[in-house]
Amino acid sequence: MNILSVTPDWIVCVKPAGTDSEKDMPALLAAQFGGTFYPVHRLDLNVGGVMVYARRPAAAAELSRLIRENLLVKEYVAAVHGDPPPSGTMEDLLWKDARRNKVYVVDRIRTGVRKAVLSYTVICRPEPDRTLVRIRLHTGRSHQIRVQFSHRKNPLWGDHKYGARDREKAPLLFSCRLSFPWQGREMAFEALPDWYPAPADNPEPLA
């Protein structure tokens, strides 16, 4: 497992895709470091990336507060189908069908509907019908990135649950950066997935 930072209060690591963020990851960390690990946020099972786990109840409470106050910033990279505008903000109302574990964009507030907001910037288009985007979440809703891009006819590569029809076996989505204030300092941690183009292969950013 890729460990990015270890402190007495928390550990920042890269969760592998296919590993449960709330069950498997605390157990794996405990096996490696000992003690108890408290999940304070989550990633979908088939999505990997940077996560923080608290090592003390007080740290878990503080990290949870930062999340509630939008002071813990989550950024992602994704490969989407199509040609979205160079940058933008997406605001939608989302409703989750818990029985089917699927999220839908709806047009009015009702029980179980929550507002979802993200902003994004196009990084490059390494090949036809594949656009790399960098995303900042402003709300943390289930399947948010996946359903909001799909709703705009730009499903993520590999996201067959939300409309992709391609060769990839899992959504090309990765939590690439996590930042938060801690004891008067701004902490920031980054990683990139193996499907992200190497610098030599990465086309110039779009204007």
Topology, element by element:
Layout: E1 2-6, E2 10-15, H1 24-33, E3 38-39, E4 48-54, H2 57-68, E5 73-80, E6 87-97, E7 102-106, E8 113-127, E9 130-137, H3 144-151, E10 173-182, E11 185-190
Parallel strand pairs: 4-10
Antiparallel strand pairs: 1-2, 2-4, 3-4, 5-9, 5-10, 6-7, 6-8, 8-9, 10-11
In short:
This protein is mainly beta and 207 residues long.
Notes on the protein architecture:
This protein has one domain (2-190): Pseudouridine synthase (2-Layer Sandwich). It has 3 helices and 11 strands. Helix content is 14%, strand content 40%. With 207 residues, the protein is mainly beta. Strand 8 and strand 9 form a beta hairpin. The protein has helices spanning 24-33, 57-68, 144-151, and strands spanning 2-6, 10-15, 38-39, 48-54, 73-80, 87-97, 102-106, 113-127, 130-137, 173-182, 185-190.
CATH class group? Alpha Beta
- CATH topology name, in short, is Pseudouridine synthase
User: Structural class, from helix and strand content?
Assistant: mainly beta
The pLDDT mean sits at 94
Q: What would you call the shape?
A: globular
The counted number of beta strands is 11
Question: What is the CATH homology-level superfamily?
Answer: Pseudouridine synthase
Beta-strand percent range: 35-45%
| First-last Cα distance | 36 Å
Features:
207 residues; mainly beta; Pseudouridine synthase; eleven-stranded mixed sheet; 3 helices; globular; disordered C terminus
